[in-house]
């Protein structure tokens, strides 16, 4: 995937860059990740507000994989986004 670059992939920690995204998507993803009891922490940083690319780190608890937590969070974010779009579409009809 062009817009996704893994920087570091350890057993309990995953660091990656999400190109062409901003605080909105990263903060929503971080929020969902932090609701997962298997996630110890999820943080992101954008070095420069205009040109920086978000770098996110996920650390999971022993025996849990950050890639799995990320996949689960991405699926939940997609589901919530579709539900929100449906609410907007219904309100604008």
Shape: globular
Cα end-to-end separation:
36 Å
pLDDT averaged residue by residue: 93
Order of helices and strands: EEHEEH
**Unreliable sequence segments:** none
Q: Looking across the biggest beta sheet, what order are the strands in?
A: 1-2-4-3
The main β sheet shows up as: 4 strands, antiparallel
Provide the helix percentage. Answer: 40-55%
Hey, roughly how much beta strand do the residues contain?
25-35%
User: What is the number of strand segments?
Assistant: 4
Count every helix, treating DSSP H or I runs of 4 or more residues as helices.
2
Radius of gyration: 14 Å
Supply the helix-strand structural class.
alpha+beta
What do these coordinates show?
Strand 1 and strand 2 form a beta hairpin. It contains two helices and four strands, in the order E-E-H-E-E-H. Strands 1-2-4-3 form a four-stranded antiparallel sheet, with helices on one face. The chain is globular and about 50 Å long. It has helices at residues 23-34, 66-92; strands at residues 4-9, 13-18, 39-45, 55-60.
